[in-house]
Design brief:
By secondary structure, the protein is α+β, with helices and mostly antiparallel strands. It is 47% helix and 16% strand.
Length: 290
């Protein structure tokens, strides 16, 4: 599943960013990335979000931020696909970080935004539904405004995001550090892992061979680039998928979830789940309402 580069053309001589009051399923159901930073508010519908090395559910009211080159994809639930063409299902805003940094660098009053933009590199999901609706109101104002009004509302929007501390990072640091490296071996490893994570028989020999390296060299290479072992990375993807199932699939028990996520025994699943999420699967399942 190779990430496709989409050209968003976020800047021109007439505008510093673009905003769409519509999400196009044919584009967003692709595993893709782009050079622009993104603010995405899901107005309605629900499904599964794939962002970097994480898999999690989304629904109406979900607000996410993505940095440049962070691959992502949104797959709606089957029962919500028929609703995609009925009204606006999302607002999405793209901008060039270079353009915004040029403004921030000239005005000391904007320095607090530097931390927000730095956090943005891992992707962020905001949890306060009430504040998220205020962000949506501002995005609508940007979409309806022109020239000066659009810029004023845009920086008001960034200020809202900077003040909201009720968020979680999405991608793991090792993944983010690697996406800006030259594409090649590591991209093949990520693509293979995201496609085959639920195969419990994945081996280091198999992964190493796929990029023409021996196992020992591959382990050193992967640890140097990502600061984690390959199986730490793979287990983070698997646990992300397990969380999705625990939250979305009430008819599946924890044992079902473990095997569907690529684990072949429960003790390892429980141990890895607690390492990644800080709680047991049975405690996590109580968060059924996202």
């Amino acid at each position: 599943m190779k990430s496709i580069l989409l050209n968003k053309t976020s800047t021109s001589h007439q505008q510093s960013f673009i905003i769409h009051p519509k999400i196009y399923p044919q584009a967003y159901s692709l595993w893709h990335h782009h050079k622009e930073y993104e603010i995405l508010y899901m107005v309605k519908n629900s499904g599964t979000a794939y962002v970097g090395d994480k898999i999690f559910p989304y629904q109406g009211g979900t607000l996410m931020l993505f940095c440049a080159n962070l691959p992502h994809m949104f797959v709606p639930k089957l029962n919500s696909v028929k609703e995609l063409d009925k009204g606006i299902d999302a607002y999405v805003l793209h901008f060039s970080i270079e353009t915004i940094n040029a403004v921030i660098g000239c005005l000391p009053e904007f320095k607090p935004l530097n931390q927000l933009l730095n956090n943005w590199k891992r992707g962020m999901i905001f949890k306060n539904v009430k504040k998220n609706k205020e962000v949506l109101r501002m995005m609508k104002a940007i979409n309806d405004g022109n020239n000066y009004d659009r810029m004023t509302h845009f920086f008001e929007l960034l200020n809202l995001l900077e003040q909201d501390k009720n968020f979680e990072f999405i991608a793991n640091p090792g993944f983010v550090e690697s996406i800006n490296l030259k594409k090649g071996r590591l991209e093949k490893v990520y693509d293979y892992s995201i496609t085959n994570f639920n195969n419990s028989s994945i081996s280091l020999d198999e992964i190493a061979e796929s990029i023409n390296m021996n196992k020992a060299a591959f382990c050193r290479y992967f640890k140097k680039i990502t600061n984690k072992t390959y199986f730490q990375f793979l287990n983070e993807i698997r646990i992300g998928h397990a969380c999705k199932l625990l939250l979305e699939e009430e008819n599946k028990n924890i044992t079902d979830v473990a095997f569907l996520s690529g684990f072949n025994n429960m003790s390892n699943f429980n141990r890895q789940f607690k390492l990644v999420k800080g709680k047991s699967p049975s405690a996590y399942i109580k968060l059924r309402k996202f």
